[in-house]
Amino acid sequence: MKVGVSLNNFRFREALNEMMNLARLGNKYLTDSEPWKVIKTDEARVRTVLNISLQICANLSIVSRPFLPFTADKLAAMLNIDKLVWLNAGRTDLLPDDHQLDKPAFLFEKIEDQQIEAQVQKLLDTKKANQQAEAKAAPAKETIQFDDFAKIDLRVGTILEAEKVPKTKKLLKLLIDTGIDKRTVVSGIAEDYKPEEIVGKKVTILVNLAPRKLKGIESNGMILMAENHEGKLSFITPSEDFEAGSEIR
Questions:
Q1: What is the rounded average pLDDT of the residues 29-44?
Q2: Closest to 75 (Cα-Cα) out of 106, 33, 116
Q3: Which burial class, exposed, middle or buried, applies to 43 when counting CB atoms under 10 A from its CB (0-12, 13-18, 19+)?
Q4: Is 0.85 topped by the overall pTM?
Q5: Closest CA to 203 of 229, 175, 228
Q6: For 192-224, what is each residue's pLDDT tens digit?
Q7: Are the beta carbons of 53 and 34 closer than 8 angstroms?
Q8: DSSP classification of residue 34
Q9: Which of 49, 141, 203, 215 counts the highest number of beta carbons within 10 A?
Q10: How many CB atoms are closer than 10 A to CB 202?
């Protein structure tokens, strides 16, 4: 058979295609013959159709074994035949007259959408876990002197108000109580946080950063955020409920 020739020449994909072609041939023959209709007028013809179809199935139990050994065993069991040797492939008398078949069953289990979704999610979770395991921290920036660091004024602040900046995807306009004053800060956190979720949130704010205009809004300070390898942002907050204006040293 062509399947054997292809296997002997290590053309495994070609061999698999030939095996599938035999399955397609059998399926087309049975479908085109319509024995479920012909039985009303020609029972002898139906016997012939079913015999040929079953002989094809018996051949499939042989040629499918290199690719689907467990399925081949299951098919052979339903046909009530022993595992046939490769040299039997191609014969049209593998099932003798009056041969008794065993109880039929589905060769393959039906896969529901929920099962597919669960497996896809499992793959995504594995991919995410691998990315996290392989993620490397960004290299340290240039060394600075203590006097440079001492110029930075970091405070605990409380978000009093929050709203999206129109016509932007990332910007939120925040009103923050710094303990020194109440000031407006524009922050690029809108893709990670909704305005209503962060009102009352304690944050770390750099209060002595020079003002900067963003979308026509003057921003006075900067909120400190942590960012992971996926680009997700998280607030840097004190572990205890410190009041606004508390210095961070």
A1: 95
A2: 106
A3: exposed
A4: no
A5: 175
A6: 999 999 999 999 999 999 999 999 999 999 999
A7: no
A8: -
A9: 203
A10: 19
- The helix, strand and coil proportions of the chain, stated in percent and rounded to the nearest 5, come to 40, 20, 45
pLDDT tens per residue across span 129-179: 887 777 777 788 888 888 888 899 999 999 999 999 999 999 999 999 999
Given a cut of 90, whether residue 111 has pLDDT beyond it is no
SS3 240: coil
Task: Take residue 137 and report the two structure tokens written for it.
Answer: 């921290």
Q: Which helix (H) or strand (E) holds 206?
A: strand 202-206
CA distance 203 to 242: 10
Residue whose token pair is 């018996």: 58
207: nearest Cα among 148, 141, 143, 155: 155
Q: What are the structural domains, with CATH classification, of the chain? A: 2-88 (1.10.730.10), 146-248 (2.40.50.140)
**Tokens matching residue 29:** 């023959």
Q: Give me the pLDDT at residue 120, please.
A: 93
Report the amino acid identity of residue 241. D
